[in-house]
Each structure stands twice: as structure tokens, then as C-alpha cells.
Task: structure prediction
Amino acid sequence: MITRVASSAALAVAALAGTGLATPAFAATLTVAADGSAQYRTVQAAINAAPVNSSARTTITIKAGTYREVVRVPANKTAITLQGLGSTPAQTVLVFNNSATTHGTFNSASMFVDGRDFGATNLTISNDYVEKPSTVDQQAVALHLNADRAVFRNVRLLGDQDTLLVNEKSRAYMADSYVEGTVDFIFGGGTMVFERTTTHEKRTAGGPITAASTPATRKYGLLFYKCTVTSAVAGTTQLGRPWRPAGQVLFRESTLTAAIRTSQPWIDMSDNSWRNARFSEYRNTGPGATKNSNRPQLPDSQAGDHTPQKYLAGTDGWNPR
Result:
């Protein structure tokens, strides 16, 4: 059952905050609570009930609690927002524990998002698979993002290796959030801007934050703007390595703590040299923001062409900020 709520200006703004969509004639609201006090007990059941190919936003509110399920937002489920109702993102948790050992990396995600204009706010998406030293493939994706114009605000993404996969179809924006993992925990060929977001390398041995596979024909990949980088152990974290030769990553005006391996923050991946990739920094601060020959700096003359809006605009002028 879908509850139709007549739109007022205030309701439209609340339902569409950060999506870049025009105000619809109505908003659809679905409710989820594991204890049976709402319309649906699972997040997936609410997604299944949402309208297909809709230009109007469907907001799915989720009561605080832990929802152990694999969540899929298919391509025909458009303009869906998942909104946690807890007082913090940690109180509403969507979690599962598949891994590459049984499902392959791409199919191991706890959440798959294919529907365009997706949004998530005030919740946690997690893969709590525990890495086992005896296994060869330990990747376990929390979020597999394959959607255009996706927006995440005040969310937590938790995992180990390969937490967030940003596929080539993706154009996404994340603000005021937290992403945690171990190796290559933000990876893929899509375009995504992280703003005022903390990335945390939790492995004591450290590792690279990003593994970009940006196509050579695409100008923009991953931008970290006014973000913060932390780690479990100082001096162990790299900013990234190129999954494919032309990977593009920029850390801009961010706080790089003592987490960073300052002498070598970019490293090679297989036969792909980091020096051939499009890796750079711009006006970062903090003890991890030293400069040397292994740390390419974006020239001031190019800074105006590497803003969050330049990354996100595409051909339709999308501006979720």
C-alpha cells in the first residue's frame, strides 16, 4: 500500500532535498519497521512496492534497527530515497555478509543501486563479512552503485576490502558522511564527489583508499573535496592506486592527517603505473599533506575546472549541492 501525500512547498523541498529533481505533483511515502509497526517489515519489500519509472520521489522511511538483508534497487525503481529515522546514522543499519569467496566481488554487495535519482540519508550500509587470512579473495562490497544522479547525505558505509563500488554508469554525490574499509575501499570507473566526508583506513597494515578505473575518455573520476582522511595507524595509508591505467582521483582542500604515507601516497597496481594515471592533490592541509616529487599537485590554472560542480554537471547541469 502506498500512502499519497498532497504536496505543499515544504513537503516538496523535504522530499527532494539534494536530488536536483523538479517538484512532483505528489510524493509517495512508504514506511518500514522490523517490528511490524509500519507498512513493511523489510526494506526490500518497500522498494518492491514503489512505483516503477517514476519521476515523482518515493521516500521510504526506515525505523531505527538492524535490517539483515540484501537490498536491490532495480533500474526501473527511480527517484527512491531511503531515510533512516534514528537520531544518528548508526541507529538504522542495512547489513549483510556476502563476500567474493562465494559470490564474486561485484555480486557480494549488501546493497545494489541501479535506479537513477536514488537518495539515502541518515543510515548505515554495511558488509560485516570478516576477512579470513586463509582465503584468497577477501573483497566484500557494502554498496554497489550503478545509478546516475545518486545522492548520499549523513550516511555511513562500512566494510573491509572494496567497501564502495562506483561503476561507470554512476554519477554520485556524498556529503557529511563516513566511509570505512581496508584496501581499495572506494573503487570503480564512475564519477563521484565526496564533500565533508571522512574516509578511514581501519587496517593496522594500512592500504590504498582508492582504486579508480576511470576510462581514458572520461575527464572526471573521484573528487574528495574538503574531506578528512584518517587511519588506524599513522603513516600507513595511501591515497590510491590505478585499477586501470587512466584512473582519475583528486584530493582537494582536504585534511590529510598523519594517516598518510607522505613519501609515497600513490602506488602502482599490477602493470598500471600511478605516474601514468591522473592522480593529484590541491591545497590540502594537515600533517599528511607534505609535498614531494611523488605527490603531483593540480596547478592553480586548472583548479576552476576541477570543482564539485564540474564533476557532477554532466550534460544536464545536475547540481545536488
Observations:
- The chain has one domain: 61-312.
- The chain is about 10% helix and 35% strand.
- Confidence is low (pLDDT under 50) at residues 1-25.
- The CA atoms of residues 72 and 112 lie 5 Å apart.
